[in-house]
Amino acid sequence: MTGSDDEGLATEPLRVGILGAARITELALVKPSRITGARLVAVAARDRSRAEAFAGAHGVERVHDSYLDVIEDPEVEVVYNPLANSLHGPWNIAALAAGKHVFTEKPSASNASEAETVAAAARLSGQQFFEGFHYLWHPLVSRLHEILASGELGELRHVETVMDMPAPTASDPRWSLELSGGALMDLGCYSLHTMRLLAPYAGGEPTLVGATGGERAGHPGVDEWLTAELAFPSGVTGTAGCTMASDHHEMSHRLVGTAGEAVITDFVNPHDDDRLVVTTAAGTRTERLGRRSSYTYQLEALTTAIRTGTPARTDADDAVLTMRLIDQCYDAVGLGPRPAHADVAKDLR
Asked: Is the pLDDT of residue 7 over 70?
């Protein structure tokens, strides 16, 4: 292959098919696509008129009658799945079986068993699987890890991640057990994932020591809040907390070492707050890593993975490890893992 051919392969726009007309799609895909040049080839929703309105508003090239039609569209090369949590696993598997790459919102499945089935499907298909932990791709995270590796904080001792937000409305799908809702699924998955990213600096993957949590009134089995206590092989401890019924918004990630600490003040929304605050004996400084959207960095990372064939950090195997921790947390608080979707066949029509 000539140099010019390589260049063409690297710059060829992604051709994306969209399942549903979820609100997150504008932030996670539509706006970034305007920067990266990705083509929004097709969309389908349960209500066709909703899909038509979405396509008209966001420049999607065509509307299909069903999710399956999107997956089978020959021009679609990657399927974006922002559906309710319970529909991530089944439709991710369907897209992989059709030979399409998958870009899924987190978490990738309802529970670890389903995530393992998705991972097996990804291996069988040979396609790229990419879970949407967008925060990872912003320079804030790599800079935080760079500071930790430099020794400026001394030896790492404790990690704390706080994920607090006001309550969604009572009808929000995040309060539905059937749709695999709950604070841990929506927020806490970020907390646990950030902990797992520290494995290279803490002797390996974290394990669950214990967890506490509480149900949402009127929504049996659905967690309103959950806090997990973790331990790393090196002796580092971690606290991963989340609540979906707070009186404030906080999504911070804090590392504490023997010589100082570093905090990303809002690691999930760096486009709103890009501060990294470092405190040592020398004083406190604030670094700003830019408010370019983490979703834009993410779409670029997805494009690189697909065009080069090199799996990204957030691949299907990584998703399994996160889901195992999530299930362990649910078991620890007595709620049990989220159930897999009850009627997959109906939805795959």
From this structure: no
